[in-house]
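Pilot study result, target chain (509 residues):
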Amino acid sequence: MDSLSGGTSTTGVGSDDPLAGRSIAVVGSGFGGLSAACYLADAGADVTVLEKNDQLGGRASQFETEGFRFDMGPSWYMMPDVFERFFGHFGREPTDYYGLSRLDPHYRVFFKDGDRVDLTPDMDQVRATFESYEDGAAEAFDDYLAQSESTYEAAMERFVYTDRPRLRDWVDSEVFRSAPVGLNLLRSMEGHVSNYFEHPKLQQIMQYTLVFLGGSPKNTPALYTMMSHVDFNLGVYYPEGGFGGVVDGIADLARELGVTFETGAEVTEITRRRGEFLVDTVAGTHSPNAVVSDADYAHTEQELLPEHERQYSESYWDDRTLAPSAFLLYLGVEGDVDPLAHHTLVLPTDWDGHFAQIFDEPAWPDDPAYYLCVPSKTDDTVAPDGHSNLFALVPIAPGLDDSPETRERYRETVLDDIAANTGVDLEDRIVVEETFSVSDFAERYNSRQGTALGLAHTLRQTALFRPPHRSEAVPDLYFTGSYTTPGIGVPMCLISGEHAANAVIDDHR
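Predicted structure:
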């Protein structure tokens, strides 16, 4: 089985029951918490996962109503190699728990000038599309993708799967061999992509994944050029049952490994007394040997720990760049929604204004870039016969006021924009409707300022500049999830859980 260490240590997950006899509480059941729980239980620990809500999965919750089933959070299944590696550690495969369908097209783009593009698994089609916008763009695409693939392979092995939490961990021959990858940290994605493509639409296509990393082309390091390899080479899939099916699969694996789950068990305080933890929940108190928090990092520090056991002050969190929040509109609709694809992006021809209203001068976007997901295109179990299931997601600044009046006004803006730019008029066909936005993220997930994703991937918040897995103030307290390394996204959180488990194992061996 695979075995990778925390930091540059040679110990870690995969050793024979190094945590036998240890009890560990995992706070939160997002993908970081589920992953950590599996690795810790596999190492012999007695693991209990404490989940605030009635469902497992954190932001990857689902809700069902009137025959419709909606994924509330993640909806793009990418980086299948990470899921294969995760299940492979336990001698399983993803398909032991859920099926996968590769999407074609991977996604569709509507530009607001009336243009439309499909990005498919057919690389010749993609090259032809790029060439149609700019002479020489097909060859530039090949060069960009080759660079993206090499960056991905080097970055995943040396910086993502290997945790380097301290400066001395970077003084390593592996790091020096990856100097070209490291240099990509020193420029923005905007500058990097413009070296290959001049046409603004091609630049947008190569940069759209930054929305899912919680950044903008101006503030995200060019290291994330590797996401184009993920997009075009590794492909985009749909898991059977949506992301709820992935949550159920990992939870089933965890139970097979001996993990216990408690839902409706919101943690209200974490303290240490005479060297022992007391983890208070609304349902009772636990006394584990160690705690791994997959709850929002800032919430854990500022709300669950006493002041003298916090690593960071309130001002530290005020100075962080949070990833966007979102305005989500979940819709059950009569009839079909052609020409929308399973994944559809609707982009202004100039999206700088939208990013400025997220990161520079926070406001509800006047001309939004947004994402539409229509799982009923692929999965006929998510909507009743003769109906479509879709949601619209508009990235917005965290901390915005999202009063009922504001939501209603913006709902009209989004529906009008969809009709104007995709030709799909939804207004008179809606039979089920729910919104979810800033205040809901804050209330349901204890998310700071209602961020949908966590800590943005800026240069100052990448790699060892993200908060650590080990608490520097409290022995035996650890963190996992999107605030830690390697960062935002379901695959990254799976790896984060491994890093946190490695830290526990190294410290308790």
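One observation from the pilot: The chain has 16 helices and 19 strands. A full batch analysis is planned for the follow-on phase.
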